[in-house]
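REVIEWER CHECKLIST
Item 1: Sequence provided? yes
Item 2: Single chain? yes
Item 3: Sequence as submitted:
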Amino acid sequence: MKFLPFVALAIAGAASTLLAAQPAPIAVTVEGLAPGPFRPDRASVWRFHRDNPALRNGGAVDVEHIRRWHMLVQESREGTRWAVGTSETALADRGFLFRKSGRAYDRFGHVSPNLYVNGDRLVAVYFGAATGKPGIPAAAWNRNRIGVAFLQKGIRILSEDGKPVDAQILALDSDRAEARLPASLKGRKLIFEILAEDGRAALAGSTVVAARVTLRLLFGGGRTVD
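Item 4: Structure as written out by the authors:
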């Protein structure tokens, strides 16, 4: 028995010597493999990327090619994360595309987000909204509904003297949104500003309008009209 450690070391050494003696593989690059249209009625060839994983610490993902950008979205317990790059694999993590809504329907996070792209325009992200069961966090990811978030222009609401007004703004579809104002503002004069999609650059401002239930504003031609 006293010789067993020596024997084990000898075997390990022989194995390492054998492995070290193996010649390096020949790496051949083959080009011109871009496929034609996908045919669901035929078998297809899929290959794992050489440098996987392409992105660390991720969950379920979706990727789309929009103009010169490749955009990836992925699930998380705090909302929908995203990464962007100029190739299918050179993707830089950009943090959260948007976080949880703050409402009950997605309180446990976003699952399996999918990008909705129309031509070269990103329209929306559909996602599994993890509602969960009250008091049972373990069941959170098994009680999902489908939520959607639309990419839109920003809206900023100001009082007549230029102070920001607290309002909840929800999308109605890809082109319309609803601003929910406190009932205490009924009849108050307000200014609505339309911002670019980054929520910063001002594109247009309305004239001073009185807040009312039937108020409808239309943005077009660089201005907002009542």
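Item 5: Key structural point noted by reviewer: The first helix runs from residue 4 to 20.
Item 6: Recommendation: ____
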